[in-house]
Amino acid sequence: MWRRLMRANSLFITLLLIFSLSACSTVSGWFAEDSYEEPPEALTEFTAEFEPQVLWDKSTGDGADGTKTNLPAWWQNDLLFTTDIEGDITAINADSGKVVWDNDLDTRVITGVGGGMGMIFVGTQKGVLIALQETDGAELWRSQLTSEVLAPATASNDVAVARTSDGRVTGVSTLDGKVLWSYQRSVPLLSLRGVSRPVIVNNEVIAGYDNGKLVALSLSDGKVLWENSIAIPRGRTELDRLVDIDADPVVKNDTVYVVTYQGQLASVDLNSGRVMWSRDMSSEIGLDVDTGNAVYVTDHDGYVWSIQDGSGDALWRQTRLLRRQVTAPSIAGRYIVVGDLEGYVHWIARNDGRFVARQQVSDGPILSQPLVINDIVYITAADGRLTAIRVPTE
């Protein structure tokens, strides 16, 4: 009797787990700090080669308000635009750090700010794309999309492009918010929480999908120009088959650089979609590119890589940030800059991957890729603190 009862309980738990996976389309929080078997790597001692100069820092609201929502800042025409999770939008002078305007939208947002065409955009949890005037924050229009907007929207040639959780890329008129076109690919049974930001270049929209496909669409009408599978799902379980493109593609010199979770880092020809080189890599975090020299990637475990552009060979790998939930890397002069879960900014030498400087700018995590503009690094922390740091020139 006892054995039959144990078998029945085991079967119930198994069926409950299967039902839970079937009912949920995304994996959220599975890769958070408390999901690792081991704790984050302790900070490594080293001899600092310089002390980074903070130009200014300021609070821009409540930030992610204790959630793991990534709310990156957006730079446009010498202004930085930020939002907190409750929809408080702030425009800041990038040089001085002074607030230019503030607009409280009084709605919950789940993406950072995007922009283009003299406008800025935020997406809400209820699937609304909101457009504001760049100069004063006046609201221009709201457009209801099909599901929650999970990536910052961008605009060019009178079309704003937004990405939603149901696998759609949607083109919206910047004049009135009217939906012009929509392209959808099916979302796998299970996927990571989040999507990559669509990139607009040469009247094309480059978008990565949860099934490992990279797609180029016409900006004017959403027609498919090409598509290619960067990674192919493999394995017996849905977890094994995750190959999401959640890291933003980077486009430079008619080349698209893209990385997938449990898949590939690849260089793709912008015009044809042909893969020029690739190597095994797992990252849902992100990359930056020095064309013709190196591609810098933060992988799923927190290792920061330098990969030879053109061959895919590894040049170096910094392993001492293991499980520290490191951000995507950004090129800052002769250095690579990343943030981590304890609010530290790590400066890494581009030539050999050694640590050269470290500073703590927040008590909370840094989730957003550092933004480097005009030799200044802008760090957005999850608590809403925005910090401007001068890039050393010598």
- The CATH superfamily name is YVTN repeat-like/Quinoprotein amine dehydrogenase
Q: Which strand order spans the largest sheet, edge to edge or round the barrel?
A: 2-34-33-32
| Morphology call | globular
Unreliable parts:
1-24, 28-35
Number of helices: 1
Radius of gyration: 21 Å
Q: What is the number of strand segments?
A: 34
Global mean pLDDT: 89
| CATH level-1 class | Mainly Beta
Q: How is this fold's topology laid out?
A:
Elements: H1 2-23, E1 26-27, E2 53-59, E3 74-76, E4 79-83, E5 88-93, E6 99-104, E7 114-116, E8 119-123, E9 128-133, E10 139-144, E11 149-156, E12 159-164, E13 168-173, E14 179-184, E15 191-192, E16 199-201, E17 204-208, E18 213-218, E19 224-229, E20 250-252, E21 255-259, E22 263-269, E23 275-281, E24 286-290, E25 294-298, E26 304-308, E27 314-318, E28 330-332, E29 335-339, E30 344-349, E31 355-360, E32 371-373, E33 376-380, E34 385-390
Parallel strand pairs: 1-15
Antiparallel strand pairs: 2-34, 3-4, 4-5, 5-6, 7-8, 8-9, 9-10, 11-12, 12-13, 13-14, 16-17, 17-18, 18-19, 20-21, 21-22, 22-23, 24-25, 25-26, 26-27, 28-29, 29-30, 30-31, 32-33, 33-34
Essential attributes:
394 residues; mainly beta; Methylamine Dehydrogenase, Chain H; 4-stranded antiparallel beta sheet; disordered N terminus
